[in-house]
Amino acid sequence: METKATVAITRCQEYDPKQVYQAVKTSLEQVDGIHKLLSNGKKKVLLKPNLLSSSLGPEHAVNTHPVVVRAVVDFFQKECGAEVYIGDSCGSLRSGSTNKAFKVTRLDEVTRETGARWINFDQDKHIEIKKTNGATLPTFKMAGVVKDADLVVSIPKLKTHGLTKYTGALKNTLGVIPAKGKKDVHVQAPKPSVFARALVDVYEEVKPHLTVMDAIVGMEGNGPNAGEPRKVGLIIAGRDGVALDVVASKIIGYEPMSIPTIRYAQERGLGTGELNKIRILGAALPEVVIPDFKRPSSFARDFAINYLPGVVFGKLFDISTSVTSSVCESNCTRCYACVKNCPVGAMSTVEGRVVVDKEKCIGCYCCDEVCDYKAIEMEHTPLGKVFVGIAKRLGVER
Ligand code: SF4
Ligand code: SF4
Prior knowledge:
By secondary structure, this protein is of the alpha/beta class. The chain is built from 16 helices and 16 strands. It has two domains: about 5-295, 3-Layer(aba) Sandwich (Rossmann fold); about 300-395, Alpha-Beta Plaits (2-Layer Sandwich).
């Protein structure tokens, strides 16, 4: 009989430490092969949460909640006496941002209370990865500890994403690349579909042994930074990150094959992209779906391109989703975090105002990801507007 990927869904309504620990434990105990992963003595376990923001606390639902990270630390310390490390590189290029993200997310308390060790991926030893399989990113640098650890556990946050539609297990591994390297990824992969392929390159290299998703409160609307918190009430866990993303994206109302990272990872044989090949344990999927989960403005609609072959899908996906940014003056505090974070130098200041060179802008959302004031606005490119208009007239929305 064919072995199915397993994804465990456990209900958990709030960030109460006892409830969260129980939900994480229940989920992980159902994951296929968990006992083998925990066997053979003490392990060096690396936890990779999503620390996108260096300024917004847990209540904003941007970063993985510290209570979930704590529960995963506790689980591995109790179950296999693990030596636990927590590491990431945050979304901002400003010096010191990753350490600020660590503190603002209150992971400093988690490390103090548990003895887990913090590793700032911007400052730690890096290794050079060279890929030979026609990858979008033929070479990149990543945190060396990823390869030193016995187990890598990804702890993403369930969120929408303006560039990649959704962010979960596959997208979370980008954080193993230090800050400047992430900027280079955007320059090398300036279109949404190409960026999604680059993310899959990184995921392939990290291939976490386990993923535990913080879906207690997710983010809807203009994620990953400027959306709104939305209660989902779940912890989701599995060994196959592709399968986990299929299930999580379905929960927030997406067709999984419309998410380019899922589609490309499945094509590369990195996991199970078909829902009917996934064994779901715990809560029943239809009971936890949130059909009105708000989408980012760039993906307010799905088009019937989801069923087209990969190359055609990628081209139409790029046209229908390409955006350029502009700044809403009334919200802007002139902190200039966006200007410093733009990987292609498309932002500058004129008499104190931030202005965007639309010719240079690649629509990468790096400005939006660091703006804490919802002052960045994304608008479809002229070609994108034409595509969306024609698709609507032809009735190929779905
Ligand atoms: S748009 Fe946002 S990040 Fe940029 S200067 Fe204004 S407030 Fe700061
Ligand atoms: S202006 Fe914003 S969206 Fe455009 S390239 Fe710069 S960071 Fe990316």
